Amino acid sequence: MAFVSMAASMPRVVFIASLVAVLAMAAGPAAAHGGRVIHLRFYMHDITGGPGQTAVQVVKGPGPAHPVMPGSHFGDTTVIDDALTEGASATSRLLGRAQGTYTLASLREPVLSVSMTVALTGGAYNGSTIAVVGRDDVSASVRELAVVGGTGAFRRATGHVLWRTARMESRDHMVLELDVYATVPSGSPPPPRADAVRKGGLNLD
């Protein structure tokens, strides 16, 4: 009798399973497209010495000397509080700070492991932060790092950063161009007005 009862219920089980699968497939694209993409571009000034220094080595790596980065050792770690500006010039409008660390993480390649928070202090997203981590191969023209979170307008953000060396102002002053593509949930705070974005020097797509 139990076998007959189970057999009789099988069509209902199959129907329910099929319905769940269809609903999951329908919800998938909606969830994938439920976020909003925010595009920001700014310039980061990494100054490792001299007046206005913003990057300080706090650990001299105990590892071997690096073969392609003279004076550097595996494990060298630097703490940064780099200015973020609207343009490539250091005198351009200040939009925030990049605060965190980078470590020489390869024995043979010029690769840094970066962990930092972008703290926006000017423009449309004033008060919000973006968490960025990843691998910075300084020999590559374009590097890609990950957006792994944030606060304020970037709460629960995901995405990536296209990271380029814009120019060298001096031996101690490197200017980096950062293109941030952050996807935030649809329930996040709404984007600012377009005129506020332009005044803040931030690009919003």
From TrEMBL:
InterPro entries from the UniProt entry: Allene_oxi_cyc_Dirigent, Dirigent
Cellular compartments annotated: Secreted, Extracellular space, Apoplast
A Gene Ontology BP annotation from the UniProt entry: phenylpropanoid biosynthetic process
Species this chain originates from: Panicum miliaceum (Proso millet)
Protein name stated in the entry: Dirigent protein
UniProt keyword annotation of Signal present: yes
Keyword presence, Secreted: yes
Function (record text): Dirigent proteins impart stereoselectivity on the phenoxy radical-coupling reaction, yielding optically active lignans from two molecules of coniferyl alcohol in the biosynthesis of lignans, flavonolignans, and alkaloids and thus plays a central role in plant secondary metabolism.
